[in-house]
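Supplementary Methods S3. Complex input for the cobalt (II) ion-bound model.
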Amino acid sequence: MAENEVKLTKLARCAGCGAKVGAGVLARLLEGIRVHQDPNLLVGFDKSDDASVYKISEDLALVQTVDFFPPIADDPYLFGQIAAANALSDVYAMGGEPRLCLNIMAVPKDMPQEAVHELLRGGYDKVYEAGALITGGHSILDDEPKYGLAVTGFVHPDKMLTNSGAKPGDVLLFTKPLGIGVLTTAAKAELASQSSIACIHRLMTTLNKGARDVMVNHRVHACTDVTGFGLLGHGLEMAQGSGVELEIDVSAVDFLPEAAELARMGILPEGMYRNRSFAENSVDPGTAELWQQDLLYDPQTSGGLLMAADPADADALFEALKAAVPSAQRIGTVREYRGGKRIFLK
Ligand code: CO
Ligand code: CO
Ligand code: CO
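Predicted complex, serialized as structure tokens:
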């Protein structure tokens, strides 16, 4: 990188999905706002789901979502790809296919034109890889750069996957390793190795399309993508929404090795603490070590899909995922809710 080139992440106060407003705060901000009803609105914002879904006809529903955040990588092309992959993910998490996207961008006055061009090129490349189009967008001037997409996709109304359909007996499957938040934070402080940084860049630019395409051929009852609220935050939303409890086998979770090392040393993103204070009253940590818990709360950017699969189909889905996702993991089971805690680590 040339000396006079801006380091994008230095312009960002918090990285990627770590910049998300905490789940508890968000719920309070939305309190008391009157929500209009429409029988065709299958999923609205009151459901804490990944995207809203609106039924157009018996066999077609619209999926809509928006995500944008400050730079999580210094290379603008990479940042563009990550932001786009992350935004597209919420459509995949509903079992849908993205079709149309709009750019959302904030750029500092003095950001070099070439860097802005590269950022956009990253977004376009990911959107085309997803089989969707960018049809426009909106840009404003801001001291801190930000980029993302509003995404519209399609899903069959009977095949949409919410985060609230998990049933007792379901098997929990997950598709990317955890620790992306820890490593992006460490990278900003120049504490992460080049190979780990390259690894999280690959993970964050990997579309959840592969996971989604396999998932829709199997009986899956619920799905969500693991992003800013971490595995336990998004898992808790699934458990509450579905009226069930989850048992997570910590030894089956794939933690990025260097993220584990850093977590043991207490190098953790701010978002981890927010996620922990939001969810911890509902989590029984069992015998999980503190660093493991921390990584389960680690905010992910463009993280994997968490699926609750019908037990009769779980083996086949797990096998099929192995060839389609960065890291197929069978991390636990769904149980009948007994009152009290929602998530049990073992
Ligand atoms: Co999501
Ligand atoms: Co979302
Ligand atoms: Co999102």
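The first strand starts at residue 41 and ends at 43. The CA atoms of residues 12 and 70 lie 6 Å apart.
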